[in-house]
Design a protein that fits this description.
Strand content of chain B: 25-35%
Oligomer: heterodimer
CATH class of chain B: Alpha Beta
Mean pLDDT of chain A: 88
Order of helices and strands of chain A: HEEEHHHHHEEHHHHHHHHEEEHHHH
Radius of gyration of chain B: 19 Å
Strand content of chain A: 5-15%
CATH topology of the largest domain in chain A: Cytochrome-c3 Hydrogenase, chain B
Distance between the termini of chain A: 28 Å
Number of domains of chain A: 2
Largest sheet of chain A: 3 strands, antiparallel
Shape of chain A: globular
Radius of gyration of chain A: 23 Å
CATH topology of chain B: Beta Polymerase, domain 2
CATH architecture of the largest domain in chain A: Orthogonal Bundle
Number of strands of chain B: 7
Largest interface: A-B, 44 and 38 residues
Number of domains of chain B: 1
Structural class of chain A: mainly alpha
Number of strands of chain A: 8
Strand order of the largest sheet of chain A: 1-2-3
Low-confidence stretches of chain A: 1-5
CATH class of the largest domain in chain A: Mainly Alpha
Order of helices and strands of chain B: HEEHEEEEHEH
Helix content of chain A: 40-55%
Number of helices of chain A: 18
Chain lengths: 409, 170
Amino acid sequence: MSELQNINVGEYGNLVSDRAVKGETLLLNMGPQHPSTHGVLRLLLELDGEIVVNCIPDIGFLHTGVEKTMEYKTFQQAEVLTDRLDYLYTIGNNLVYCLAVEKLLELDVPERAQAIRVILTELSRIQSHLIWIGTSALDLAAMSVFLYAMRERELILDVYEMVSGARMMTTYIRPGGLWRDVPSGFEAAVRHIVKEIPRRVDEYEALLTKNPIFLDRTVGIGKITTEDCLKWSIGGPVLRATGLAYDIRRARPYSGYEQYDFDIPTQPEGDIFARYKVRVEEMRQSVRIIEQALDKLPGGPVRSSNRKYIPPPRSEIGVSMEALIHHFKLWTSGFETPKGSVYTAIESPRGELGVFLESDGGAKPFRVHFRTPSFSNLQIMSLLSKGHFVADLVGIIGSLDIVLGDTDR
Amino acid sequence: MDTSLTPLVESLQARFGAQPAEFRGEVTLVLAPDQLIGAAQALRDEFGFKMMIDGTAVDYFPQTQPRFHLVYHLLNLDTNLILTLRVPVAGDDPHSPTLETVYPGANWYEREVWDLFGIRFDGHSDMRRIIMPPDWQGHPLRKDYPLHYEEVQFSFNADEINARKPYAKE
């Protein structure tokens, strides 16, 4: 019998109740291969019949050492690894890393690049919420929503493919701007999505919001208060579903979010259904932001012209010695950075996604740390699940919208 | 520095001996480990830093005094200011008091620091490894922990690396 299957009560002595030590309650593993754990998550459950007495999450199964590996790559190379963290919000991971590098280097980003960044991260948010609404409803046995959500997600992945050539791991946002300008069909494709999504969201709501089975499984379950959220470092939709309208896009704007008009949806209840309502409304607000950004999409360059950090255009390399030298320098040794550390954060679909970046003056990051929302969200599993049925656990996990690649890094 | 932070910085300087620093508009306070809890409590209760958003560490190997810096980021939700706390920790027997008593959310962040850097937190409720398997040897994010199991051998360091390699014994 492997280590994981053989639960040693002594090892968890300070976490489980005395009744588990005496054998009155049952210790049971859920995962790491359970389909409703949204990845590879192991929950150690202490059960009294069907009631959860305690739930101890065990993470790390998807640990890939991204933070360590990045210390051995130049700043440009390290960005490729950020895609692999939160695989449902890849463009946002690129963005937060690039914002940190730009803050360190004091690089300016052209307006057009900022607007395209906003459009793509908001599309990414919709895409992530589509996966969430599909999978969390699937966990509660509503099969059809998943199929519809996947259909709409495909439209957004097509846009990713159009701009970057990749459907998930795009690395399209680069320090100082974007990899290249968007192709000609971009605006039409995004306009189509913007037109389509609100109607589709109404359809999902028609399937779920007044569905008595869905309401039975979500209302009043997995409750949390605003104070507990702040204590346990929780932001994003989970915090907003407790009634506090805190959104980093509004509170600490980045990439020009201050120019867009959008509402911050909140719900007072703090249960699974409140989180559902908040996320559904967020999809509609994202559509509003994308529409505004498209309407006033400025022209001009999409990359900073600072040649010390940004590679020159291909056309210049053939005619300019200077450009050739910069190109050679940037793609062999990378760029030198000032010594110091910075912290930047953006609003991910799951909460605050932050990067702590420290440089010792060289071309490689000295230390990169990702403050990932799934990590802190998972920490409150025990708080949320106490006293509920085992069957409600999958609903609670789904409502936290965790991505294990994001948790384990 | 944001002028609204000036009274806070002066107060913490006088009461807890905090050393302020600024880089790219971010204010950092360097605190001795024994002053951390008091300073964090004052920041939470008097200055409105209700949320700890991040906790991590940096390894400055081969420097030993201090070898590590613990880095905490605190957020004030009303003013949207972020304050960085840095706690220097010595290299031999690294340990620091836990911030869990002030911010319960520090629990997993400190477990991660223990797991990946080997810094112990005194008074922590659950000091187990979190990311690596329970029987893992070493702390991967330390600078003296190699990235790859196989280190690249050159003529100048081949003998040294060979001596460390776990060859099959008789």
